[in-house]
Every structure is written in structure tokens, then in C-alpha cells.
Amino acid sequence: MNAPRLEIDLSKVYDNTRILVELLGDRGISVTGMTKASLGCPEIAEALIRAGVSAIGDSRIENIQNMRHHLVPASMILTRSPMLSQVEEIVKYADVSFNTELEVIRKLSAAAGEANQVHGIVLMVELGDLREGIMPEDMLDVVREVIRIPNIVLKGIGANLACRNGVSPDGTNMSELSALANLIETTFNLTLEIVSGGSSANLNWALSGAGTGRINDLRLGESILLGREPLHRQAIDGLHADAITLVAEVIESKVKPSQPWGEIAQNAFGEKLTFLDRGRIPQAILAIGHQDTDPHGLQPPAGIDILGASSDHLIVESNLPVGSEITFQLNYSALARAMTSPFIARVMKHQGGPIPEPVA
């Protein structure tokens, strides 16, 4: 079998999704299954749909287009603010897009009009993480303009936390989002279908037993694919942390000094490293590196330590022979980069058996 490769156990992806859909469903919250880390993989999207997600979300219109071409049967949401240069594609392939700029919404309106369509939008609110979002005090003015724009329907509001600066979702910021939803509805006599509280980072809050207010949707990716919550990278009870693994092949195996010799300058990635002299140690090199994944996000099996990496080499302390394979677990950064590498194959597995048909 080719290496390096991502081994994707669709049965485990399905199990993780089903469990989270059920847990959040008991709290009145639906799940938008995020496929951006999997590069819009149609097989993963199908597993999410069969496990009961309400929609598929992705940050790249190209991924949504790919899933449409593979006839993935779901409502599609573009979760990154649209580029003006892509409004025609967005209207064509996405049912809903997340927005913060009136200029972009007007261009979406024009594109929707030309296509004789209506495009749904969710307005994103800034709640402190300082990524995308309309300031809360400006939201009523923006809504007032949006509801006048033809070919556009306001589906709801949403927020994003913990991605740029690590601001945690909690009762305070989620209550602010709920209050804003109520204010919009009473001010303009309308109903917001979606109040999207955030991502997998919201799980600790959503499942804590505290009131969830108006929040009725979360966008889940990392928790489904890796079985972990993003705030502290802790495994979630009952979920598979190995639904996706990365397998790499040993291309050199030798005993070498643990400390380099010669004048030490920066390495290829601008780092100036320090070393502990442990004498001669077994060193194996695998055919994978920074160009393929985030080496800092790889977790090797017990007894194997990662010593370093270059563009296309990963060095580990091991005496495994040439041709051997090592299976790594991944964090989100390593997964996202590995999925985008053209040098890493994808292998779909069903170790837990066939995936059931979509839930009712």
C-alpha cells in the first residue's frame, strides 16, 4: 500500500458524528458537519449526513463545488466570508454563506438575481476573538440594510471564537449572541432560523448543562474527525481519537550521534536549535515533512520520539528497518495540511462495519 497515506475510518467518523448529534440534539442544538479539514472529501461528507448532521459546512467554495459534483445530498454552507471575485460560484454552489460586509452581500444579490435564485446569508457577530464579525452595536443597522436587498434572505446570525486568539465560548458571550438574536427578531418582526454559536470549541459550554439560550447550531469538524475538543485538546469521552491516522514509511535507518557537529546556524525553517548529547542513538528517517503536514502535530506510537523534520524528511528515534511503516495520530493542524498535500494518499476504511442509511 502506498505511503505516506491518511487512513480514514469512515465507521469511526460516523460514530463520532452520531454521538455528538445525539448529545447536542438533547440540548436543542443541531450540527453543521464541517468538511474543510478534509478538503471537502465526499466520503466523509456522506458519513456526516448519514449520522444526522443538518447541513455541510466548508470554508472553500472549491470544496463545496467538488461535493456538489459528487452529488453529496445536503444543504451546503460557505462558512468563510465570500470573496467578491467568487460571488457567482458561491450563489451557484452554496445555499447559504456567512457574511460581514454589505458590499459583498449586494454583489451576492446581483449574482443571485442573474441566476434567478435567492441566496441565504448568516451575519457573523464579533464577540471578542477578533477574527471575522460585525460589531454587536452595528448589527441592527446592518440587518436594516440586508432585509432591503433583493434576492437575499437573512437566515440567521453566528459567531466564531477560539480560532484566532483562543477566546473561549462561555455563558457570557453565548448569552450576548442569544440576546442579539432576540433583539433582531423583535426590532424587525422576523424569525432567525439559525443562531450558530460556533465550533467544536463550544462543546464544553454546550454540554455543561448550562442554559443554551437561542443557540441552535454548532459547526463541528475537529471533534468529529479527531475526537477532541479544541480548547485544551482533550479527548472527548466515548469518541474515537483515531478515526484518521497518518502512515509514513522509513527510508533510512542508522545509528548516529545525537548531537550535530560544526558551526550551528538557522535551519531551513529559521530555527536555531539546541541539542542534548546522548551519545549515539538509533535514528530512522520517514518520507514525509513540513511540505506534507505539520510535524509538530504528529503523535507517534509509544516508544518512538520525533527528533526533528525538514521539508520532506521526518526524523525519529527508532531502530525500525527501511520499509517499515509508522502510524501517527494527528492534531488539527497536521490533519488539515496532510489533507491538502498531493503527495499523501487517502485510504478509506470501514473497520466498524458498513455505515447505516441516513437517520430519519
TrEMBL record:
User: What cofactor does this protein call for?
Assistant: pyridoxal 5'-phosphate
Q: From the UniProt record, which GO molecular function terms apply?
A: alanine racemase activity; pyridoxal phosphate binding
**Name of a matching Pfam family:** Ala_racemase_N
Q: Where are the transmembrane segments?
A: none
Q: Which CDD domains match?
A: PLPDE_III_AR_like_1
Q: In the UniProt record, which is one GO cellular component term?
A: cytosol
Cite the entry's keywords alphabetically. Isomerase, Pyridoxal phosphate
**Protein name per the record:** Alanine racemase
**Source organism per UniProt:** Polystyrenella longa
